[in-house]
Amino acid sequence: MRLYPVFGRRPSKTKVQAFRKSEHLVDGKFVNLTSTIMDTSLKTMYSTLKDFIKGNPNGRPHRPLPMANTSFQQSNHAQFTWFGHSASMLNMEGKTLLLDPMFGNAPSPLPSFGIKRYSGGLPFKVEELPVIDAVLLSHDHYDHLDYGSIRKIKHKVNNFLVPLGVGSHLERWGVDPAKIQEYDWWDELQFEGLTLVCTPAKHFSGRSLSDRNATLWCSWVIKGEHTRVFFSGDSGYAPHFKEIGDKYGPFDLALIECGQYDERWADIHMMPEESVQAHLDVNAKLMIPIHWAGFTLAFHDWMDPIERVTRAAKARNVAISTPKIGETVFIGAADFPQITWWRQED
Q1: Which residues form the Metallo-beta-lactamase domain (predicted)?
Q2: Is the pLDDT of residue 40 over 70?
């Protein structure tokens, strides 16, 4: 683990010492704002192993997913482009931001053996990416922070804005430390005309057997003069969504995780119906579900997240957009993608 760079690197003793001022660090580990149950009982481990062995014939698409052709043309209108799972691009007020840019084929320290991306690739070549003003990371799990992706894009990125401790991984991978800034929950920063806030999430972190919760996880508030966006990162449902909405809402767009859930780990990943409630809590005009259509990381059918979340949104009169991978959504526009493209493979 010390020699293989994909695992990243734990924060140094100096950094850990600096983290002690964070009220979210307890006995050297970061903790959630509310009690978080990670059930590791024999009964739960047995049922999980049983489901893993059984498998699910509908756990992934039967053919690669359709993708839109992504073009990186500049626009005066705020826009959002989703690349599958949580990886996405946000263009607003003259700035280009990448959110959790996991562009690899498998979320694994051994990509050749990992669970493969549904789409079979990306709707663009990494070389086509424009200059990125900032990469915003939510946490260090493999489906959000990818060694190969960072190595490919680091020369195009001016800044990496990350939760506490995550910068240590980036430094090991050759990112200039001067480009990396780390933040605690509720830290606000002024970034080239935007106000960014590192806000709470209910999750955990770690890339190896020995670094569980050694780094922080987060969501992000992105505020411009004309546009406000909320990015949930990975999170179980909890009161922090309402607190964020009360403090920084209303939002024009909320990017809310809705997949890879299970009752056995409901404290760290929301059920789709809870995702809609989280959207309502943060007080956003439009919801785009993320954290689905990328990889199979749970036992539910691959289409369950989007079917359940759109059904719940309709029941609660929530405006929801369902762009294809690579499709751009213009934030604040009267029209937005709503077709059920995922059913076209049936």
Answers
A1: 97-292
A2: yes
With respect to residue 15, please indicate whether it lies within any of the assigned structural domains: no
List the alpha helices (DSSP H) in 138-228.
Answer: 147-153, 167-172
Task: Give residue 322's domain range.
Answer: 59-345
pLDDT of 346 over the 60 cut: no
Cβ-contact 278, 232 below 8 angstroms:
yes
- Tally of domains within the chain: 1
Domain membership flag for residue 31: no
**How much of the chain is helix, strand and coil, in % rounded to 5?**
25, 20, 55
Query: Which pLDDT score, from 0 to 100, does residue 331 have?
Result: 98
Question: Residue 308: helix, strand or coil by DSSP?
Answer: helix
Establish if 238 belongs to a structural domain.
Answer: yes
Order across the sheet with 328-330: list the strands. 180-183, 160-163, 134-136, 95-99, 88-92, 79-82, 328-330
Does 308 fall in a domain?
yes
Q: How far does CA 37 lie from the centroid of its chain?
A: 21
CATH number, residue 160: 3.60.15.10
